[in-house]
Amino acid sequence: MRRLTLTAGITMLALPLCAAQSAVISIGTPLSRSCYQAALSEDDSNFALDECTRALTEGALSPTDRAATYVNRGILRMVRGKDADADADFDSALALNQDLPDAWLNKGFLRIRKGDGRNALPLLQQGIDRKPGRQALAIFARGVAYEEIGEYRSAYEDLSRAHQLEPHWALPREYLSHYRVVSQ
């Protein structure tokens, strides 16, 4: 009888998820477009955050662009370590559009950063189910969440899948290097 055993390395890597890779494009107003660009570049300046807030308060945004701008401002708040404010922005986005994968994913990223993989999993799954633009990032994050809770087989499967989807992305490969697969 052959059995597959997975073991993860003792050292857990810090999760350097790029939240900006889950930014949502907004074409509504110049301010909302600027907010999107700031989220993409993870600009943690007061100016960038103020532009996002101004886009939400001054601009006549469609519900779609408003939800996207909340996600993008949430990313900037997350970059600044303002996790509660970021989470509130992601909630505001979801109140406008429950089908926005990036709001779900970023809520999951926040939980992972806190080492709360168990609560990250359903949020990440919501994002995955809604077909995010970067499926590999979403599956990778779910793999990290599984790793945090000690479900190494599921973690390995997700990390492998993320690597298959984006073979040139180094982060899944780096995480996979901490696993040893042995047949018994």
Description:
64% of the residues lie in helices and 5% in strands. The chain is mostly helical and 184 residues long. It has one domain: Tetratricopeptide repeat domain (Serine Threonine Protein Phosphatase 5, Tetratricopeptide repeat, Alpha Horseshoe). A two-stranded antiparallel ribbon has the order 1-2. Helix 1 (30-41) packs antiparallel against helix 2, helix 3 packs antiparallel against helix 4 and helix 5 runs parallel beside helix 7. It is elongated, with a radius of gyration of 17 Å.
Task: Find the CATH topology.
Answer: Serine Threonine Protein Phosphatase 5, Tetratricopeptide repeat
Give the end-to-end Cα distance, rounded to a whole number of Å: 8 Å
Largest sheet: 2 strands, antiparallel
Uncertain segments of ≥5 residues (pLDDT<50)?
1-16
CATH class: Mainly Alpha
Q: Write the element-wise H/E pattern from the N-terminal end onward.
A: EHHHHHHHHHE
The counted number of beta strands is 2
The CATH homologous superfamily is called: Tetratricopeptide repeat domain
Structural classification: mainly alpha
Instruction: Please give the share of residues in helix.
Output: 55-70%
Residues in β-strands, percent? 5-15%
CATH architecture, by name, is Alpha Horseshoe
Question: Mean pLDDT, as a whole number?
Answer: 87
Number of helices: 9
Strand order of the largest sheet: 1-2
Overall 3D geometry? elongated
> What is the oligomer described by this structure?
single chain
Using only C-alpha atoms, the radius of gyration works out to 17 Å
- The domain tally reads 1
